[in-house]
Amino acid sequence: DAKTTQPTSMDCAEGRAANLPCNHSTISGNEYVYWYRQIHSQGPQYIIHGLKNNETNEMASLIITEDRKSSTLILPHATLRDTAVYYCIVRTNNDYKLSFGAGTTVTVRA
Amino acid sequence: KAGVTQTPRYLIKTRGQQVTLSCSPISGHRSVSWYQQTPGQGLQFLFEYFSETQRNKGNFPGRFSGRQFSNSRSEMNVSTLELGDSALYLCASSPAQGSGFSYEQYFGPGTRLTVT
Fold it and tell me: A100–B43: do the CB atoms touch at under 8 Å?
């Protein structure tokens, strides 16, 4: 069973914020929310992760709801180079492997 | 810090041959994982090395093997190549410490292997 649910695709205008939702209603207390992205034919790129507090780094912000059943990845000023497949996953400290679902294909348009 | 590097980036081999792929992790990272990615199967875990020891292994045949050196660099080998081995092979390093795996994984650009 998939642990996360993401929209199949979304478009975003260049320069605007991109808000990518993810549902993880069965998340356990010890599971973190991770976001990765993969630009066509390149290796996946780690973006951000969090447990229950909102997180921000140079790439994005992660907003996790208080009940932790959903989260939103925010790309504050999308550029054409942000066009990629974005993966939301949940994993514990002891999960030694990553497994991606279908993810959200984000297309940033000029 | 330099990122994860993988060599070669592209490779074309013939069925029955063997191939060795190399991965240099981010400096200070002791954990290296290998994945196979194909359009049909998605991202599949091959194995993970930590401090020169294979710590975890995926569900791949014995033709797929790997090793890690004392400087954390890693190699994976595929013997007796089959057409179905054509894929993007990804290496990921992690600053994981001890027995936990509580950290993010940083991927290299991958090696695109084509078997003809």
Answer: yes
